[in-house]
Amino acid sequence: MKNKFLEAGLIVNTHGVQGEVKIVPWCDSPEFLCQFDTLYIGGAPVKVLSKRVHKGNVLAVLEGVDDVNAAMRLKGRTVEIDRTGVALPEGRHFIADLMGLEVRDADSGEVLGTVADVLTPPAHEVYVVKGGKHSYMIPAVDEFLVESNVEGGYIRVRLIEGMESDV
Questions:
Q1: Residue 162 pLDDT > 70, yes or no?
Q2: 3-state secondary structure string, the chain?
Q3: End-to-end CA distance of the chain
Q4: What is the pTM of this model?
Q5: What is the structure's pLDDT at 3?
Q6: What is the Cα Rg of the chain in Å?
Q7: Beta strand pairing status for 154-157 and 102-105?
Q8: Which of 49, 5, 58 lies closest to 31, judged by CA?
């Protein structure tokens, strides 16, 4: 079952003396995080009164956070978003939904393992698959990714020589 709330960033500091917080986004871009008028901290909804992108981070004024002391108490807290407020483009998935999916060889049907991590270098995502005696690093591009069926709980991939390593 998919979690209703997804971790989206970390409050790392205050900004100024009026209670603004600095959030390092964990999503594709800080602009994505700025789409939300409500964030969740510790499961509680917090209204975002204003937000802006600054040097790759999000600076936000949150309801009830009126000074630097109140903002400082939020330092180190994770912010979450409600997934129901997000419409992803076709073929895109939240990383949290990929974790633990079974990975199958598209040609043989053999189960290679499960998605243990998703790396996000600048070019494209890379799925780290662990299972049995081997692990795999599979670029999430059409050449290797045959099918992503998050609802069905699996991904089908086409391997090439050298993608596996001993665990």
A1: no
A2: CCCCEEEEEEEEEEECCCCEEEEEECCCCHHHHCCCCEEEECCEEEEEEEEEEECCEEEEEECCCCCHHHHHCCCCCEEEEEHHHCCCCCCCCCHHHHCCCEEEECCCCCEEEEEEEEECCCCCCEEEEEECCEEEEEECCCCCEEEEECCCCEEEECCCCCCEEEC
A3: 29
A4: 0.75
A5: 79
A6: 19
A7: parallel
A8: 58
Q: Which residues pair with 110 in a beta bridge?
A: none
Sign for the pseudo-dihedral over CA of 32, 35, 36, 41: positive
Q: Is the pLDDT assigned to residue 164 strictly greater than 70?
A: no
Are 137 and 128 contacting, i.e. CB atoms less than 8 angstroms apart? yes
